[in-house]
Amino acid sequence: MSKPKQTHIPVLMQQVLDLLAPQAGESFLDLTAGAGGHAGAVLELTMAPAKATLIDRDPEAIDGLRKKFKDTSLLQSDFYSAVKELKGQGKKYDIILADLGVSSLHLEHGLRGFSFNRPGPLDMRMDRGQSLSAEEIVNTWSEADLANILKRYGEERKSRQIARKIVAQRPIHTTDQLAAVVTKTYRIRSRIHPATRTFQALRVAVNDELNQLEKSLPLMLELLAPGGRLAIISFHSLEDRLIKQSFKAATEQGYEAEIYALTKKPVTATPDEIVLNPRARSAKLRAVAKIKK
Ligand SMILES: C[S@@+](CC[C@H](N)C(=O)[O-])C[C@H]1O[C@@H](n2cnc3c(N)ncnc32)[C@H](O)[C@@H]1O
Known about the structure:
The protein is α/β, with parallel strands linked by helices and 293 residues long. It is built from 13 helices and 7 strands.
């Protein structure tokens, strides 16, 4: 396996390895393989590339993974479709990992349209084969629907004012145009950029991120082999809430429970890691395991 060219720094790497505790010969499913940082580290320990499946919905990520992982199966798919398919095939895995959200590939390339501080088209599709983009939402959705996603997915206090401004300023085609419209709504400056929550909300809506996660969680648990471990890293409270609830429901089934918690509270990054990799600031890691029987 050749060494990956690192642009994306994997978060909470050691904590993920400690919880997943990969053993030689174990099978591995990475639902959000991205740049393959976590996957590479897990595979160094399992030494079983043929028993691994790496998934990403972004075809560009899959192209990068193809160069790094030679004997491993790679699947370009959203993870909900993938887990449904794998369950249908009766597959089980010793190790499952999901590191949610976007990668540096998305954030650092203005052309992908994810970042309010990089000029580019309002795109935000992780899979550029899908038709719905941020530009379509911003320019065609009703003011009420815009306000609704800003509130639900961005937890934006000024959702209605921002939605009104967006509708008044249409058409909006670029990230910097949208960032400027949102910034005008805020008179007082805070530590985070005023457009942060709007961009998050649009990204979640474009990629249907919360539905993907909510529908996949029970299937991820089913795909665990006896003795298997599942770790999920999330980056905002809406995702963490879904994971927490799903894990809680699975672990609180009394004597029937097959699943037990490996983390009581979410694991977060150390101050040192945050200095090296600011993206780790909001990362929360939770993990569960299936009893051996
Ligand atoms: C944070 S990055 C993962 C980074 C990876 N752990 C590493 O070490 O390189 C998240 C990746 O998941 C992908 N992704 C996000 N949501 C997805 C979904 N619902 N289905 C499949 N892939 C998804 C993104 O395209 C992105 O490449």
